[in-house]
Design brief:
Layout (H helix, E strand, L loop, with lengths): L9 H33 L6 H28 L3 H29 L26
Length: about 130
């Protein structure tokens, strides 16, 4: 049986470091990919809206699961302070990720305006009209 005064092993500390690095480096990199897809789309380059959404969902998943797993590891190894910090971080990341994904889903569900028919002419005020019949 384990005693209550036994210190956690080095593997749990390594696991916490790896999960923290995944969380603090992986999540921002995935958000940068979402940003890059948006820039590519705004400049008229080839962009896939589904790809940007997949990066956003991946960022939300990594942003929540890495601190949640770190909280579990910290809790199992009796690191109460770390478990509390990672647990609160996982909860905050969950709320932030849910808000970001729901906003992106709401924005992407707005239909784009229909293109104008061929030969459509718009008259402009203050000048000559090149439109037929006017």
């Amino acid at each position: 049986m384990e005693s209550a005064t036994e210190k956690p092993g080095p593997w749990s500390g390594l696991a916490l470091v790896v999960l923290t690095l995944i969380w603090l480096i992986g999540t921002p990199l995935l958000f940068l990919q979402v940003f890059a897809e948006g820039l590519r789309a705004s400049r008229g380059g080839p962009s896939d809206g589904d790809r940007a959404m997949r990066f956003l969902i991946a960022a939300a998943v990594v942003g929540v699961t890495a601190p949640a797993l770190a909280a579990i590891v910290a809790g199992k190894t009796r690191r109460e302070g770390a478990a509390l910090v990672f647990g609160v971080a996982a909860a905050l990341c969950f709320v932030a990720g849910a808000v970001l994904v729901s906003v992106d889903l709401r924005v992407s569900s707005v239909p784009s305006p229909e293109p104008l028919p061929p030969g459509y002419c718009v008259e402009r005020s203050g000048g000559d009209s090149d439109c037929p019949g006017g």
